[in-house]
Design goal:
Elements: H1 2-5, H2 8-17, E1 33-42, H3 49-59, E2 62-66, H4 73-84, E3 98-111, E4 122-128, E5 131-148, E6 152-158, E7 164-170, H5 178-184, E8 192-200, E9 202-209, H6 211-216, H7 230-233, E10 242-251, E11 255-267, E12 282-287, E13 294-300
Parallel strand pairs: 1-2
Antiparallel strand pairs: 1-3, 3-11, 4-5, 5-6, 5-8, 6-7, 9-10, 10-11, 12-13
């Protein structure tokens, strides 16, 4: 959505940083994922009607012009997030003074190709770095790919949609490279074998601030005075102040449920409003903004 609202160098930087060849790439096909898009724009901005048309048609996005000073606005955005993620992400951290929010919510629900029996789940020990805890452990015999290297065992568990989960189990505890090592194993294949599997039910959530990584990727204009999102804000110079992503995944006997919400926002902080109360006689001048030529001038002694 931001690509469609960006102009000039701001747009070029997004396209380059995210590897988009064209704005049409901004609507990727994600089989198995349910995608929801929403945008909330403070009424202080003037959005180009053509932008709203294309965002609604391309993304089926909810675009709303709201008053962020209203106490009802933030709760309505959080309800959208919760509903779009099936309650898995109930809220997002937005600061007072927010004037713009663009959100993209992805949800993915998939079952195990060989589901676990709930009755076989029993408390068992999980040996964490800070001590051993008793947690619900799922048990079953599965047919899966199992392989390893000098330090880690790997198990690839299939889902019903043809995707899979690769589990990396290091023999001496997690290290800084356990995850990246596992990613390098994604192309490795092995013959399926029968495995007596014990796997904990687990939930994981995360929050990642993305402004600094995006700047390092080349999206500098989006966050400074060179920003040109004039299709969204009606003028250049309105910069994004925050981009973040929240994620959550739950794995149980039936399979996995995952939700991710990506948010771009303009957070100005609490706005200090200057009082300008025209309650006495005044003069006015209507000018041509290009030439500054006076078109109409007058005084008002009494309205």
């Amino acid at each position: 959505m931001l690509v469609l609202g960006a102009r000039g160098g701001t747009r070029d930087q997004i396209v380059t940083a995210l590897g988009l060849s064209d704005a049409s790439d901004a609507a990727p096909s994600l089989p198995g994922f349910h995608v929801s898009d929403g945008m909330w724009i403070d009424r202080i901005y003037t959005t180009l009607p053509s932008f709203e048309v294309v965002v609604r048609s391309r993304f089926a996005a909810d675009v709303a012009h709201v008053d962020f000073r209203s106490p009802d606005t933030m709760p309505s955005i959080e309800r959208w997030v919760s509903q779009s993620t099936g309650g898995q992400i109930p809220s997002i951290p937005l600061s007072p003074g927010t004037t713009f929010v663009a959100a993209d919510a992805l949800t993915y629900r998939v079952g195990w190709a060989q589901p676990f029996e709930v009755g076989n789940t029993k408390l068992g020990p999980f040996h964490a770095a800070d001590g051993t805890a008793s947690v619900p452990m799922m048990h079953r015999e599965v047919t899966a790919q199992e392989f390893g290297d000098a330090h880690t065992e790997y198990l690839r568990l299939p889902f019903t949609d043809g995707n899979s989960m690769l589990i990396a189990l290091p023999d001496k505890g997690l290290t800084s490279t356990t995850l990246t090592d596992a990613m390098e194993m994604l192309d490795r294949q092995a013959s399926p074998i029968d495995v007596a599997l014990t796997l904990p039910r687990f939930t994981v959530s995360s929050h990642v601030e993305l402004r600094d990584p995006l700047v390092r990727m080349g999206m500098t204009s989006s966050f400074n005075g060179d920003a040109d999102y004039s299709a969204i804000f009606g003028r250049p110079g309105v910069a994004l102040t925050r981009v973040f992503q929240q994620g959550a995944i739950a794995v149980d006997e039936r399979g996995a449920t995952m939700s991710v919400v990506s948010v771009a926002a303009v957070e100005l902080g609490m706005r200090q409003l200057v009082t300008f109360n025209v309650d006495r006689p005044f003069a006015f001048v209507i000018e041509d903004n290009t030439t500054h030529q006076v078109l109409v001038a007058g005084i008002v002694a009494h309205p």
